[in-house]
Amino acid sequence: MLATLAEDGDALVILDQTLLPYEVVERRLTRLADVAHAIRSMQVRGAPLIGACAAYGIALALAEAADDAALEAAIALLAGTRPTAVNLHWALQRMRRVLAPLAPAMRAAAAWREAGAIAREDAAANAAIAAHGLPLLARLARSRQPQPLDIMTHCNAGWLATVAHGTALASVYAAHRAGLALHVWVSETRPRKQGLLTAWELAEARLPYTLIADNAAGLLMRQGRVDIVIVGADRIAANGDTANKIGTYLKALAAREHGVPFYVAAPLSTIDFSCPSGEAIPIEERDGAELGAPAGFPVANPAFDVTPAGLIAGIITERGICRPDRLRDLAP
Ligand code: MRU
Q1: Mean confidence (pLDDT) of the chain
Q2: Which residues line ligand 1 (CB under 6 A)?
Q3: In angstroms, rounded to a whole number, what is the distance separating the alpha carbons of residues 81 and 291?
Q4: Average pLDDT over residues 49-68
Q5: CA torsion angle 303 307 313 314 (round to 10)
Q6: 214 is known as an active-site residue
Q7: Please, what are the domains in the chain?
C-alpha cells in the first residue's frame, strides 16, 4: 500500500488521485495554494484525507507568514475549497484552536505537529473502525457459507480516501485478512468514477470484486445478490442523516426495499453535532463539465446526497457500531 500523504522535510507529498488508476504519480506540495488546488481539483479527496491535508496546508501557510491575519486567510482559503466534507472544517477549527493562542513565531512548528497528530489519529480511528466492523461481517459471512459474502459499496471509502486503512473498506480489508470469503460490488460512481479507485485498491489487495454501473445496484439487490451495503460519509448530522457521494441515497432506498442492511462507516471527525439534520448539510455543486455533456447543455452536478437516518442500520465509528438515533451518545 502506498501512503496517501507523507511529510518530506518542509513539504507535503500526496498521491495524485485524478490520475489513478491509470498512473501512480506523487506530488510535492510546498505552498498553501498547492494544497488548496489539490483539494479543489480532487488530487486529494475523501473526507478524512481532505481534513488532514488541509491541516498541513495551514502549516505550509504559516511557514511564510504566521500573524493572525495570515492564519485566518489560510483557514478561509481552505474552508472555501469543498463545502460538504465536514472533516475539512473540523480540522481547520482544530488548527485555529491550537494555533491562535500562540505567539506567531511558535505557530509554524506547532501547526506541523498538530497536522501530524490529525493524520495519526485518523489512521488509528480507521483501524478501530475495522475492528468494530469485523464481527458484523463475520456474522453475516457465516450465514452465507459456503457462498462468499456479497458486499456493495459506493464511491471510494478505502485507504485512498483517508490517511490509512479507509472507513467503509477498513472492515472489508479486516475480514479479508481474517480469511472470510468475500466479494465486493463496486459501483462506478458517476461522474468522477471514484469506483475505479475502489476497484484499484481491491485489486491490489487481491480481494474479489466486480465493477458495476451505478444503476445496476437496484437490479442486483432485487436478485438477492447483495448481503450488505457499506458506504463512507462526508458529514453526518446529529440526528444520523448522512451526506455521502451522490447516488448513496438511491442505494439506501433500494436496500430498504429489498431487506439488505445498509451501514455507514466513519470516524467521529465526520459527525457534525452542530448540524441538527440532513437539511442543514451544504451540498457541493461541482462544475457541470464533469458530466461530459457538450458545451451549452444545461446540467446540474450535485456531488453529494443525504441518506435519512431511518434507512441506516448502523454507523460504524472508532467507538463501536451506533444506531443513528443514538448518535448523540457519542457527542464530546
Ligand atoms: O468527492 P469525493 O471523492 O471527495 O467524495 C468522497 C466520498 O463521498 C466518500 O464516500 C467519503 O468521503 C467517505 S471517505 C472515507
Answers
A1: 97
A2: 45-48, 85, 155, 157, 161-162, 167, 194, 232-234, 244-245, 303
A3: 20
A4: 98
A5: 60
A6: no
A7: 5-121 (1.20.120.420), 130-330 (3.40.50.10470)
